[in-house]
Task: inverse folding
């Protein structure tokens, strides 16, 4: 029988915990907000992950979302609130907890299966992609939309995006392109594709397992999995274009390479990419590219530590206030017409980009301190 663990239920109604034998199912439970991660949720999830690692009777974690989304990212409405209060420390605390959670998930000693139904964006990727099994389906919509908000792909995205085939990670991280379940599987962001009408059967089977053996868990998911075809128009079918353009050294060169491709390609992919890049914050684009490139040679912990420095600079508005402008345009005034500053790519100099990687100049500020973990930092192995 399904049992809701009363302790956690009382503590954290935004994250429900269901206990079935050796399985614990964590349900993101803010369906009206598309399960956007509040600080209570990241704190609650972190507590769950830490305590279930200790409990020998718990062998498998399932993470899923209630309603039509898995999770639409960090709760940007909460941020808009904190901006009004004129304090960057709220954001820094939120990210400290969130990135620690991402790190615990990436180095977790027990298997995690994330059931990626519906929207998976930003912080939603952070609580799933670092885990062992990511099950996509036909209604999954994945995106890292941060450059449109004046932010950059964080939550350890510079680790997993930089490990996608070729320069697909640069494409996904800079343009905020939306991927469907088949594309997620094809690029390695998802490990499995299970049809929506078989998801609940999969979940029931997983709730009966009494093992942490990843091969056994994989065997169960395999029984429900399919190999979907990637749509003809998908960027996955245009990897030669993606690689040619997104391998360029600078954002300006990427845009110029896309513009050269545009007359030759009938597919909307190239024009849509140019449009997204032209609309995004120039500063965000440049720091995102630098972050993904740097991430290629770093461990997940190193990526998160560097991203924490970056995000604190963003929250403090040290070199640009684009994030506040993005929140204003998208959340507060909802005019969807942000005025980025600096407004053009050529005005965002390499020296400033480099400063996002430096320590924050504040006596109270500390680098992200991640615990020593016994399990190795797992690598996401792209399937192509
Ligand atoms: C494409 C979406 C996912 C779905 O569109 P839709 O189907 O037309 O649905 P709605 O847009 O009507 O969303 C339903 C409700 O969910 C809310 N919502 C939908 N995503 C969200 C959301 N990330 N937050 C907070 N309410 C939301 C949305 O505001 C709305 O609330 P309401 O108007 O009151 O009905 C759309 O909602 C959307 O673009 N959401 C934002 C995605 C996004 O940019 N994600 C965040 C990336 S950045 C990030 O993760 C960092 C956050 C951060 C966190 C803490 C900090 O201190 C600093 C930063």
Result:
């Amino acid at each position: 029988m399904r049992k809701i663990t009363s302790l956690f239920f009382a503590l954290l109604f935004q994250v429900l915990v269901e206990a079935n034998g050796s399985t614990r199912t964590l349900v993101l439970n803010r369906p009206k907000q598309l399960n956007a991660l509040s600080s209570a949720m990241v704190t609650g999830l972190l507590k769950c992950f830490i305590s279930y690692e200790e409990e020998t009777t718990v062998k498998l974690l399932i993470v899923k979302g209630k309603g039509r989304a898995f999770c639409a990212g960090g709760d940007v409405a909460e941020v808009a609130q904190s901006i009004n209060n004129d304090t960057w420390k709220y954001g820094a605390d939120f990210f400290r907890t969130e990135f620690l959670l991402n790190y615990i998930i990436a180095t977790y000693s027990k298997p995690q299966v994330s059931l990626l139904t519906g929207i998976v964006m930003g912080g939603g990727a952070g609580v799933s992609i670092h885990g062992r099994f990511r099950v996509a389906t036909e209604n999954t919509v994945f995106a890292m939309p941060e450059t449109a908000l004046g932010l950059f792909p964080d939550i350890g995205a510079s680790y997993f995006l930089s490990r996608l085939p070729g320069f697909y990670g640069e494409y996904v991280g800079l343009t905020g392109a939306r991927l469907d379940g088949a594309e997620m599987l094809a690029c390695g962001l998802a490990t499995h594709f299970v049809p929506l009408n078989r998801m609940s059967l999969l979940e029931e089977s997983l709730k009966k397992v009494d093992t942490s053996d990843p091969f056994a868990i994989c065997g169960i998911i395999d029984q429900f999995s399919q190999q979907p075809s990637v749509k003809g128009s998908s960027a996955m079918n245009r990897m030669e274009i993606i690689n040619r353009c997104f391998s360029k050294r600078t954002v300006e060169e990427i845009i110029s390479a896309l513009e050269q491709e545009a007359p030759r390609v009938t597919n909307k992919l190239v024009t849509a990419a140019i449009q997204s890049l032209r609309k995004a914050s120039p500063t965000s684009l440049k720091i995102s590219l630098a972050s993904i490139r740097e991430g290629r040679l770093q461990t997940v912990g190193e990526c998160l530590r560097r991203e924490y420095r970056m995000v604190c600079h963003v929250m403090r508005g040290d070199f640009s206030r684009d994030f506040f402008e993005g929140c204003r345009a998208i959340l507060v005034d909802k005019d969807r017409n942000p005025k980025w500053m600096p407004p053009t790519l050529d005005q965002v100099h390499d020296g400033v980009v480099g400063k996002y990687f430096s320590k924050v100049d504040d006596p109270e500020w500390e680098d992200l301190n991640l615990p020593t973990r016994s399990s190795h930092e797992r690598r996401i192995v792209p399937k192509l």
Notes: The pocket of p-coumaroyl-CoA is lined by residues 33-34, 36, 72-79, 82, 91, 94, 119, 121-123, 145-146, 149, 151 (CB under 6 Å). The CA atoms of residues 183 and 234 lie 8 Å apart.
